[in-house]
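If your schedule permits, I should be very grateful for your opinion on a structural question. I have a record of one protein: its chain in single-letter code and its fold written as discrete structure tokens. Kindly check, if you would, that the fold set down in the tokens agrees with what the sequence suggests. I remain grateful for any guidance, and I place the record below:

***
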Amino acid sequence: MNAEHPTLADVVSVLEDLYPPSTAEGWDAVGLVAGDPSRPVRRVLFAVDPVADVVAEAVEWEADLVVTHHPLFLRGVHSVAATTFKGAVVHRLLAAGCGLYVAHTNADAAPRGVADALADLVGLSDRRPLVAHVDDTERGLGRVGTLDHPTTLGEFAERVAQVLPTTVQGVRVAGDLEAPVTTAAVVGGSGDSLFDAVRATAADVYVTADLRHHPASELRERAVFEATDPERREAGTPFLVDVAHFASEWPWLAYAATDLSAGLGDGTVTTKVSTLVTDPWTHRVGGVGR
């Protein structure tokens, strides 16, 4: 590896040590999307979404590589012509000499990945994967553990709101705000498919994103119905803290930037974490207290 400028192949090698593609979900599309492996890399921009605004930021900053969490292509395509919005992204990147790399569910599961970054921010210790990969005590989807300080659901939700990027959605909560919470589970991104795993841990509260009406309603109804304390049936656990998808995954970017730099050798590349809010929602009308 050139001490000053590693090649794109060098950078990809470090990224795939951190986030092995073999640990991605079977439906996922991770890895190098665009770029010449032989080209030198001086600047790497990290972002959640490979959208036009992020590409514009990368081009303006003269990045040689953009690393995103979300894939640009999840399904097979027959053309990347600039006549489509995704094709235009590819063309603008390549015209600027900038590559694109994706670390998605493999980054969700990795040590110091999406789940660990979220767990650190909300104050989760003595933790383990919510759904562990086979024969791996550190790698797996989500995290579950003990809160650094016992608190109430309301205070915990306030902490979540303070440590995550601000979005139009904000933070939604289901449960008794005065109820005590001492344990939590977290999953970055869409997490209502893991409700059974969360219930099996007996966590007091579950932090995730994209919670849909019916799964969330049924989880809370079941929790209340099965509560063992007849005087506090409304406090059946797990409570729910629903955040914006983008906000739940953005904290990982700083970990990825730090770990890539360490893997390449300090000073060989310059990294930058995009602060663009790429959550698609732009306004909220009405709501509580209107």
